[in-house]
Amino acid sequence: MGLFSRERRWRSQPRRTHTEEDASRTSSRRLIVVRLAVVLLFCALSLQLLRFQIWSGGRYQLKAESNRLRLVTVPPPRGLLYDRNHNPLVRNVASYTAVIVPADLPKGQENDVYFQLSNVIGVPPDQIQQKVADSLKRNDPFTPVAIKEQLNQNTVLTLAELRHTLPGVDIRYDTVRQYSDPVLMSHIYGYVGPINPDNLSDYEARGYQQDDKVGQTGLEYTYEDQLRGTPGKQQIEVDATGRELQQLGEDPPKPGNSLVLSIDLDLQQHVTDILQQSLNQTGSDLGVAIMMDVHTGEILAYASLPNYDVSKFASGISQKDFDALLNATGKPLTDHAIQDAYPPGSTFKVIVGSGALQEGIATTNTTLISHGAFNVTGDPANPAYVYDWADLGKLDFLHGLAMSSDIYFYCLSGGCPFLPGGGLARGLTADRIAYWAREFGLDTATGIDLPNEVSGLIPDTTWAAKNLKNADGSPAHWYIGDTYFMGIGQGYDTATPIQMVRVAAAIANGGDLLRPHLVREVDDASGNVVVPPQKQVVKHLDVSDANLAIIRQGMTMAVEGGSAATAFLPGQHIAGKTGTAEFGAAIAKPTGDSENLNPLQNGTYNEHGWFISFAPYDNPQVALVVFHDKGGGAATAAPTAKKIWDYYFNQYKKGNPNPGASPTPASTTPAGG
Amino acid sequence: MVRDLRRFDFLMLLACLLLVGYGLALIYSGSLARYGSGHAAITHVVVKQAAFAAFGLLLMLLLTQLDYRVWDALAPALYTISVLALMAVLVIGHKEFGSRRWFPTPVLQLQPSELAKLVTIVFLAKYLADDHRRVRTARGFLITLGLAALPAGLVFIEPDLGTAVVFLAVWLGMIYVAGARMKHLLTFLGACVAAIPFTVLIGLSGYQKDRFQSFIDPAKDPLGAGYNILQSEVSIGSGGLWGKGFTHGPQTQLAYLRTQTTDYVFSVLGEELGFIGAMVLFFLFVVLLFRGLRTASRSPDDFGRYIATGIVIMIVVQTFINIGVNVRLFPVTGIPLPFISQGGSSLLTMFVAVGILQSIAVRRRATPFRM
Questions:
Q1: If exposure means fewest CB atoms within 10 Å of the residue's CB, which of A12, A255, A492, A595 is most exposed?
Q2: Are A233 and A250 in contact (CB under 8 A)?
Q3: Prior bond to A306 cis, omega within 30?
Q4: For residue range A321-362, what is the model confidence (pLDDT) as tens digits?
Q5: From the centroid of its chain, how far is CA B182?
Q6: Rounded CA separation A504/A495 (Å)
Q7: b/e for A627-658, b at 16 or more Cβ within 10 A?
Q8: CA–CA separation, A622 vs A292, rounded Å?
Q9: What residues of B are in contact with residue A31 (Cβ under 8 Å)?
Q10: Which residue intervals of A523-652 are DSSP H helices?
């Protein structure tokens, strides 16, 4: 540009003096260079702008969009729960949570925000800081951190105003469960809670997010997929502090489906009250009463005591409260109707009786004499006595069942060739008893729509060889006494109340073993039926109609003058079978059933009381099981059942002549007299 | 005024006023997110800036009337006062964003470095014009360097690296135009290049190092030191050819940009008015600067020519650094965009500068001495 050549020329003329005119000429030449430099500098800026705005403009466009646009998941409203008459049981109510989005906190002034937030919601600043720090270890800084849930209305309003001066602080709207009665059906409802970290990946695979809440127990757990609904998406515009400015687009969430329970709220309430009263009277810690439609398997009432306040879980229960509940008397968090199995006692005789009839071991004419005890060996030199609960005298099959004779059923179970007055050469044997017990659905979960159901246990010789050992570890011998105990529902037999009510229902309905269920119908949010009522027959029992009719007759006789007379309700036709099972350490003397009105007569209180029943016996509609942890079949369980039947026939049915419990019209029931 | 109305440079004035108007519009848009629309924004920033502009315009006209040669006599005293003020601000100045640059006054935050730039220009011009041979000697070269380096050093300590660079650039431009030997100039530039590594390692204060690191890799701390760099890049880049429309830039209006009425006002322009808007701005600057250089060319004397040169260099360097920071050519440094950025000190300084230019222009020779 002539600049350097100019210099060089000057150097080649060393001695020439630098005149003012030279200076002016140089100066004006160099001003042209400055002009050029100015243009060049602006060209450089323009080139950089071209690069940003034209060549890479699209990329920056996307970046700017992702700055201001956030796609947020909108949780769907969870489905509701109704009783069979569509009375609301579980609803959703609004809940507001104060959250912090760490990314939006003002840099270096986090503590000011914590302090001001603390003044509003009452959580100490160091706790807020801790929660944020904990979250940042696991999540990215855009994940909101819940600081306080269930804010009250005033706090929400205060916070909503302050939010604009507290960058990073936001209020999150949420819903929590609200119960018409948080205690009455706690075991049925269950509760929702945060996803257990161990199962997180499973849930994430199903489209859940980390801070979603899911059903933890009860129907909330079983019907999670129905109740959940489909999350929506919302595109929102946020400013630099993360505040939502406007909603740009929405794919609305689809609410979860609602459950219409088979439970009748009125019946549930009264059955529970009656059970609670009788538990209080007998000093029992826990008990169960379940009413089931014998035709459909629908559960009409399901009292499982003790229960607990499920609303404590709705907003997150403290560890202390949880531990207290876990260890409270009667274990309220365990649903004893399905999660605990107990020896079924003499209620088991309906199964042994059915098997014995079906296999021809006995007929209605099989007559045996109970003198209250007999020597099993028949050898006076080497006697081994077994006992009945009373000297019941001459018994045919119906009376053996109706009077719940232990000796009669020992004979059916294991044979009694040496019974004075003529015995049975052979009985069912342990493995056949086990077969019939399993035929009636014991030793396997019923498949009720509640989680964590246990299957109970029915032993057989294979099981015994594996599990029963002598002190030296060798397999223990299976004695005839073991078969006898097994035949009267003692020893190693255990069953859940839900299994036993199903047994009663199967006998009542002519042999259909049903899957019990609590949810009758699933409706969508608009009330359209998604899943209609349906009955599920697990199988048809391999017992003839005639034989089942005999069992029904025996159960009727038990109530009408037999061992279950304490359940007799004048004017109603109830069929039932009591059971009193000893539990705890094995007792040397097999006393079997002690159908005494006074449970204390046996010298111990450690007996379970059972009563299974159905009514009306000539046209069965409903089966009922009553179980008392401490009590006796005839002494406590049957009287409780009587009160329940009394309420059912004399009040409930009168108010609901046709409650629609079954697809077949309910038969007209004679009024109680 | 009456006397030299014909020679008054109206084009320069027009460019000036258009730039200020452009700036007011950008400040208005940039302040919406902070102050809301309507009254609040008006009373808070735009009106205040317009008031400074009006006052600046008055000042400019007064200075146009005043013969620029009076500055020749006043230069040594003004220079001394400026240097003392720069020293004082280090001790009693108002601290903000980690540096001491301002004297708080009720009307504006007085930034002595702004006026010191002009005073240094005048004093350098006087020194160079007093004897045109000085600049060609090593001694003269070093003395002028010292005159510039003293205020530059004081400003550097504040710390305000950007303004220090402006002082040195102005000095370099002025002695170049005054006829300094290429040997001296190249030696000086070589020494500067050689010193860069040492300066980066030792000379820069902590926050300047942070700024330099975040310039190299802003994504390292996207919510901290790198935030402004990333956001201004996104703002300008997303503007495209025509921009998002005035007051319709999401980055600006949703407050993703910070200091968007001062240091990052160009990002508002880039986002909302796009490449075209930027070209309009550049055109206005180029017109202004060329009119300034024309004034230098036609100056009746060396003193006027060197002052005009210094002022042009000052404006162009500030503009280049400010926009360069916005478009990621330079590390972050707080230099206002002349005539555009919100801020009284800077705007008044610019009007004073233009006033002096006009004073030279109206006293120019009837015809250019050469060209």
A1: A12
A2: yes
A3: yes
A4: 888 888 888 899 999 999 999 999 999 999 999 999 999 999
A5: 26
A6: 13
A7: bbbbbbbbbbbbbbbbbbbbbbbbebbeeeee
A8: 6
A9: 177, 293, 296-297, 309
A10: 545-559, 638-647
B contact test, residue of A38, A46, A47, A51 with most B CBs within 10 A: A38
CA distance A209 to A213: 9
Inform me whether the C-beta atom of residue A600 falls under 8 Å from chain B C-beta atoms: no
Distance CA A18, CA A366 (A): 148
Distance, CA of B371 to CA of B368 (rounded, Å): 7
Residue B178 contacts A where some CB pair is shorter than 8 Å: yes
How far out from the chain centre does Cα A648 lie?
A: 27
Cis peptide before A616 (omega within 30 of 0): yes
Interchain CB distance below 8 Å, B293 and A49: no
Contact between A261 and A87 under an 8 Å Cβ cutoff? The reply is: no
- ipTM of predicted complex: 0.93
The torsion angles phi and psi of A342, rounded to 5 degrees, stand at: -130, 155
Global pTM reads 0.66
State the Cα angle at B102 between B96 and B106, rounded to 5°. 105
Q: Do A35 and B239 touch (CB under 8 A)?
A: no
User: In this predicted structure, what is the pLDDT of residue A120?
Assistant: 87
Q: pLDDT confidence of A232, banded at 50, 70, 90?
A: confident
Half-sphere exposure of A211 (CA within 13 A, CB side): 14
B290 touches chain A (CB under 8 A): yes
Sign of the alpha-carbon torsion through A146, A151, A155, A159: positive
Question: Which of the four pLDDT bands, split at 50, 70 and 90, describes residue A665?
Answer: very low
Burial of residue B95, with CB atoms counted within 10 A of its CB: 0-12 exposed, 13-18 middle, 19 or more buried: exposed
Ramachandran class of A363: left when φ > 0, alpha when ψ lies in -120 to 50, beta otherwise: beta
Give the closest of A38, A57, A240 to B286, CB-based: A38
Burial class (CB in 10 A: 0-12, 13-18, 19+), B288: buried
